[in-house]
Design brief:
homodimer; 356 residues; alpha/beta; Isopropylmalate Dehydrogenase; two-stranded antiparallel ribbon; binds 3-isopropylmalic acid
Chain lengths: 356, 356
């Protein structure tokens, strides 16, 4: 099988980690019978400055027509408002209907906390306040701006469904490796603020409950948490959680909070997942402060490559990458500065390639 | 001076901690020349079940006409949607125009983290998604619900202004007690998500910057953080922050996150502050699981009593309470179960009264 992968480095260190991710794909063992072809695509603030658009039509078209999946680096946000600029990753998620943003975090050697953490946030990726329908009026007391938060039954149902499926497949992995986890039952925690937003978040809550009450999910323990309590609990007992499903904005916030629990953002991957497409995307930003120094941590990208492969049905190839990355981290000899090490991006890449 | 205080215990353990808070006020040393009179007022889910409204007009009227301040306990949220019910504290904040929700957290003995944390979140308390303007339509793919997020220049300006004032008064307290803190300059961090919500959160950001650029705030270091990064940073380096100012919903989430950093929610106070009124409110909820056991932690309420007094211009009385509470915690002999102790609410109260 040959997979065609779009490469969208974006800005800043995106241009350092995405080429490293490509190398990992190219170096997968031939026994996997998996080949890759690549196409380079533009997006980001740099692209906006050159062409007037942060997400050229050509990028979207090529992804739609030619590609099976993609890797996205990071984009810089302008520090003051720039007319006409808006985030290309947010637009891409919507245009390709990549309705789930999946962000697993696990305790690793670099982590400062005691108990093992192994959870995934499954964030709705197409609506909520990210519909970006805003307006501003000039009132008697100055400006008043409004934004629409939109929650649909359809999007809530499918995000809860994929959260349920992810919970089942995580349990299957645990069952296949007895002794690696004390968790015996999959769990999904529905996050919302329906005590204030009874209609929008109320719809999310009810619909998620309905989706997760399907026969195929009968082994799943379903709980819910109000978003503010969820952040509190996430800090106090992160090891308790398995799969957390949330509307777009809460998911954005919760997944950054979860990343903080396991050390550097440079470790945390994500995948933007639709029915037939997946984009791997490291959770870190474009990090202009270290751009060009060759010391950006490529681990989040490697894991995002693996996550993309999982959602493209290539779990074996993904497992190879996870194992190689864990080997690198456990060994601890080649770590980038964000992890307290002195290694360069290239050295981490070489070490991971050796372990593939 | 005699202050008239409305007592609104609400539901659950609110009915245990508010009477304890009243006792603290009644027991303040007479040298302070401060007297109190009290009026009991209804609100909450229990009130809703009895009367059909969670916030009787009489409660609002009495607060407006007779009272200088109030103490609010907690309210239970129904576990499923109940027609006609909506949170009385959210309504109260709006009806009394208590536009700032102030939540200080400090490291105490009970905390599990190393570095000292001493920060306060200043949350806008009257608008954002809390305007609760929602509607639901039946579309071709099922229900679609929308909520309005409203951000005004006026509310953003005044919340940033009070955040600046709080930053200055915190610095004055530090300056008056040299050696207690390494912070030499007040700092305010503006939190928003203007990279996605350029109009609403953009307005908050710009207006807060404008408010904080006033001459009187020239000693303040002003920074900003996107809300997801803010949660990440709050977990990674909480000791860095001083005053965090945020729109309503982000403030709700951030203040719970901050509370998690310093141990039990049972320690964290808040005040709902308007131009001439303040309501002290512990951050914890109604805790139905421990209701009636007499073991609820009254510390958050005592600190909320003190915070209310500060905003009513009685900083000396407030300081007495803070010192008594810190004495109780440092001593560690009378701690409630949430703090790992075995003391009852009454024992903690008695211990704090002795220290007043
Ligand atoms: C850059 C920003 C628009 C984006 C988001 O809010 O989704 C980022 O925070 C993320 O989580 O991928
Ligand atoms: C109970 C709820 C409506 C309330 C809020 O969201 O403001 C609570 O979380 C708080 O922070 O006081």
């Amino acid at each position: 099988r040959t997979l065609r992968i779009g490469l969208i480095p974006g800005d800043g260190i995106g241009r350092e980690v995405i080429p490293a991710g490509r190398k990992v794909l190219e170096s997968l063992p031939s026994s996997l019978n998996l080949k890759f072809s690549f196409v380079d695509l533009d997006a980001g603030f740099g692209t906006f400055q050159k062409t007037g658009t942060a997400l050229p039509d050509k990028t979207v078209d090529t992804l739609k027509k030619e590609c099976d999946g993609a890797l996205f680096g990071a984009v810089s946000s302008p520090s003051t408002k720039v007319a006409g600029y808006s985030s290309p990753i947010v637009a891409l998620r919507k245009k390709l209907d990549l309705y789930a943003n999946v962000r697993p975090v696990r305790t690793t050697v670099g982590s400062s906390r005691g108990n093992p953490i192994d959870l995934v946030t499954v964030r709705e990726n197409t609506e909520d306040l990210y519909v970006k329908e805003e307006r501003t009026i000039e009132g008697p007391d100055g400006k008043v701006a409004e934004a629409i938060k939109r929650i649909s039954e359809r999007a809530s149902f499918r995000i809860a469904t994929i959260a349920g499926e992810i919970a089942l497949s995580r349990q299957a992995i645990r069952d296949a490796a007895p002794g690696t986890s004390t968790r015996t039952q999959p769990m999904v925690t529905i996050t919302h603020k329906s005590n204030v937003l009874s209609q929008t978040d109320g719809l999310f809550r009810e619909t998620a409950r309905k989706a997760l009450s399907a026969e195929k999910f009968s082994s799943i323990h379903v709980e819910e948490q109000i978003v503010d309590s969820m952040v509190y609990k996430l800090f106090r007992q992160p090891e308790y959680y398995d799969v957390i499903v949330a509307p777009n904005l809460y998911g954005d916030i919760l997944s950054d909070g979860a990343a903080a629990l396991v050390g550097s953002l440079g470790l945390v991957p994500s995948a933007n997942v639709g029915d037939n497409f997946a984009i791997g995307e490291p959770c870190h930003g474009s990090a202009p402060d270290i751009e060009g120094l060759g010391i950006s941590n490529p681990i989040a990208t490697f894991r995002s490559v693996a996550l993309m492969l999982e959602f493209l049905g290539e779990a074996n190839a993904a497992a190879k990458i996870y194992t190689a990355v864990d080997g690198n981290l456990d060994d601890g000899k080649f770590l980038t500065p964000d992890m307290g090490g002195k290694a360069t991006t290239q050295q981490v890449l070489d070490d991971v390639l050796k372990r593939l």
